[in-house]
Design brief:
By secondary structure, the chain is α/β, with parallel strands linked by helices. The protein is 39% helix and 18% strand. The protein has helices at residues 14-22, 51-56, 71-81, 94-99, 114-125, 141-150, 164-170, 200-211, 216-223, 225-232, 238-248, 270-279, and strands at 36-41, 65-66, 69-70, 84-90, 106-108, 129-133, 157-163, 179-181, 184-194, 253-257. α4 links the parallel β4 (84-90) and β5. α5 runs antiparallel to α8 (200-211). It is globular and about 50 Å long.
């Protein structure tokens, strides 16, 4: 059954979902030896209708129901079970803020763009900070724990990516966007680690990229012709590329490889919603 078949039962479960948020399992003790804070990005772009939310018949994609729980509940449950000491949710949508009523989270107002929302979240929550998104429908606590364990001890910033081989092995029907490197193609997994205050230097560079998104030639100039040429020719490995980008921000940056290719699957569009339903046996 596609996502539209789930519309009918969403409204009358609203109260149960609210109670579920207050009773998420607390598995923090002994779950991971890397204490951290977590930030879930759940902001909405004003005036824009999210296609996945519209397809599912809900006001926000964080309220899409999968296996009896909203995506918001699932992501909250995963970061809590992974051992998050403090959880923040960056959200401006009233339906999301209402769904969080009574939950043990800090509701933070989002900024104009995701980079500033992360910077504000880091200032409020502290470090180390794991950042993810509310549409990470299949997120598992063990992915977060493994990500933290695999991040080099000297890294200020880390990003989780999945190789094309692992993504295709886990979900051959999915269509992802891949970045091509000398050692293979990789897709982002919507999991980031800001280990310390120095990591905020990355936010400053990210903010510049956001501001120049309609002027790609200026982004190219900022990265430098040598970097772009080597990347275009497939001469850079994933680790080399991430290290160079980190150097641009004066941080030690690391790429961490996902063990499970499903970590690259999120819900950006209706076809993604159908895919995750299929993957959990609801299709």
């Amino acid at each position: 059954m596609g996502a539209r078949g789930q519309q009918g039962h969403v409204p009358h479960r609203r109260e149960r979902r609210r109670h579920a948020l207050q009773n998420l399992p607390d598995l923090r003790e002994g779950s991971v030896n890397h204490p951290f804070k977590a930030l879930i990005l759940a902001g909405s772009r004003g005036g824009e209708v999210d296609p996945a939310a519209a397809y599912a018949g809900v006001a926000h994609k964080g309220l899409i129901v999968l296996q009896g729980h909203t995506l918001l509940e699932r992501v909250l449950g995963a970061v809590q079970a992974a051992g998050a000491e403090t959880i923040g949710v960056s959200a401006n949508d009233e339906t999301i803020r209402s769904a969080l009523a009574g939950a043990d989270v800090k509701v933070l107002p989002p900024a104009a763009g995701p980079s500033q929302s992360v910077a504000d979240g880091a200032t409020t929550l502290g470090f180390p900070l794991v950042v993810t998104t509310v549409d990470h429908a299949l997120l598992k606590p063990e992915w977060i724990a493994q990500f933290l364990a695999d991040t080099p001890a000297d890294a200020d910033v880390a990003v989780l990516l999945a190789s094309e081989e692992r993504v295709q092995a886990a979900a051959p029907q999915t269509k992802r966007t891949y970045l091509k490197f000398r050692d293979g193609r990789y897709s982002g997994c919507n999991l980031f680690l800001l280990r310390n205050e120095n990591a905020l230097n990355v936010i400053a560079v990210w903010r510049k990229v956001e501001a120049l998104r309609k002027q790609p030639w200026k982004i190219a100039a900022m990265l430098g012709p040598s970097f772009l040429i080597r990347y275009a020719l497939g001469l850079l490995t994933l680790d080399e590329a991430v290290a160079r980008l980190g150097k641009l921000a004066d941080v030690k940056a690391a790429a961490v490889r996902a063990h499970d290719g499903l970590a690259a699957v999120d819900v950006d569009k209706p076809s993604d919603m159908d895919l995750v339903r299929e993957l959990v046996g609801e299709a």
